[in-house]
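Annex B, item 7. Sequence and structure tokens for protein A, then protein B.
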Amino acid sequence: MIYSIHPDVEKFQLFSIDGKFARKALGEDTMFHFDESPISYSGVWKPMELEFYISGKQKTLPLPDISQHYGRLFLNEKAYVALKDILEPSGEFLPVFYADGTGYLFNLLALEDNALNKDLCKKNEWGEIVWIGFNEELIANPIFRIEYDNFFSVFCTEKFHSAYMDAELNGLVFTQNLAPEPV
């Protein structure tokens, strides 16, 4: 089973990275705060502050244990401890801090373009992705991205989904609809 992972915007706050802080920490030419390309930052990373916000009409929402934005995952300490071993081979953990404590951004670097089943993929007349299909037996990573959708979406296997559920974490929505969510 392959899932597409999205932040649970109805029940939890979302995280963002201030461009000013990203440029100060990583250099003036960085687009880290909104570039979803799978680029390693561990060699130049300096811990930076994350901000959280509410995207809907709710007045208050709690912070998530884990959330997803631009192909990166925010993990609080609980999520980090629960998922570290399963995530580590697929990317890098970058330390962050926020008003309520410390955590990590997981910079997802694993790609599974070789597992893409082009016969099952479909785009509409405007070039927008309608459906993405995989040859599941070719997928090596429990969590990954693909170039086909410009690294926009985050996908996972049942292994990651089960680890998330077993740890009783919150903040993500898993769907079997593999088309990217509209922005």
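Protein B:
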Amino acid sequence: MARIKLSFPDDAFTFVTEMPVRISDINGANHLGNDALISMLSEARAQFLVSHGIQESDRDGTGIIVTDLATMYQSESFFPEVLRFEVGLMDFNRYGGDFVFRVSKAESGQPVALAKYGFVFFNYLKKQVVPMPDSFRSRFA
């Protein structure tokens, strides 16, 4: 199986947040676990949305649902390092697009991972994919 190769332009990233690697994020190999990094990506995405005044779901039940995730690991990270998460949006379509992430060590700048989440807008009450709201599209697309 071919390895995933991710590459994003620098101008794709419009938001930055930092998070420490917690002791509970460390796996049996004594480095940041895959599951913990995915949780941190979700937190970075949530902070990005909050910084733009966007809630995870609207009153009508429409929110964002992740459709796929690709992660390319570049180096290990350890407790208690602080990681820098750069977040952006790209590759929009009628229903969603991609959240993109660049993760590095805050102190040294050493790359840790690149990742992307595919997403669509989903009405949780109707249980169906819905078009991207105009308010979201006009702000980011």
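Comment on protein B: The beta strands are 13-20, 62-73, 82-90, 96-105, 111-123, 128-130.
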